[in-house]
Amino acid sequence: MTSNFPRPGRNSRIARLPPRERILDAAEELFLREGIRAVGVQAVAERADTTKMALYRHFATKDALIEEWLRIVAAGYSTALDHVEAAHPDDGRAQVLGTARFFAEGLPDVARRGCPFVNSVAGLPDPGHPARRLIENHKADQRRRLTAMCERAGAHVPDDASAEITFLLEGAQISAQNGSVDHAGDRLVTAVSAVLDRATAPRGQEPRGRRAV
Predict the structure, then answer these.
(1) Are 110 and 173 in contact (CB under 8 A)?
(2) Angle made by CA atoms 182, 184, 190, in degrees to the nearest 5
(3) From 213's CA, which of 21, 57, 83, 126 has a CA 20 to 30 Å away?
(4) Closest-CA residue to 200 (of 144, 142, 141, 160)
(5) Rounded to whole angstroms, how far apart are CA atoms 28 and 69?
(6) Least trusted range by pLDDT, from 4-13, 37-46, 140-149, 194-203
(7) pTM value?
(8) Alpha-carbon distance 149 to 169, whole Å?
């Protein structure tokens, strides 16, 4: 059963949005709070202060609505990486650390609402679902970009370094969501920095005995 408690100031903010954006905003709120499998189209329409008929004019199916919402979320992450790369051209280390800080800054929101990708995959058991493929493609692109950053940073094996960093980024979000680690953001940036130190150290001079977290 959906809650009727709105976010502070939501009603006045949402009232100014076009119908399509109102629907997407309502879908995000309900999908994150209750899970995509538990939320029906009627609940989204009511939360968006519209009708099912109007919703279906913008999104032919619930699956199409899920996919478009996740596309917007993925685009936000990609844009953040664009900004990091533009802010530190040709400085791979600064790009990687900027990416880690972006994830760290988002952990409080993940702690409150959960990771949209993790939550959605759990609700999409069909591996061929378009939204699930969208998530997989987004994650693969993010990994490719991290590998390129690690290469620019001078990592001896950029793919290995980006794999470790991906584990850290994803793990930090899960830890924030379940509350298992305190100061997760600070620990994340420290751990990513340690991976870079080790990955770029002269051969035979890799840092030893340094605790990443």
Answers:
(1) yes
(2) 125
(3) 83
(4) 160
(5) 7
(6) 4-13
(7) 0.85
(8) 15
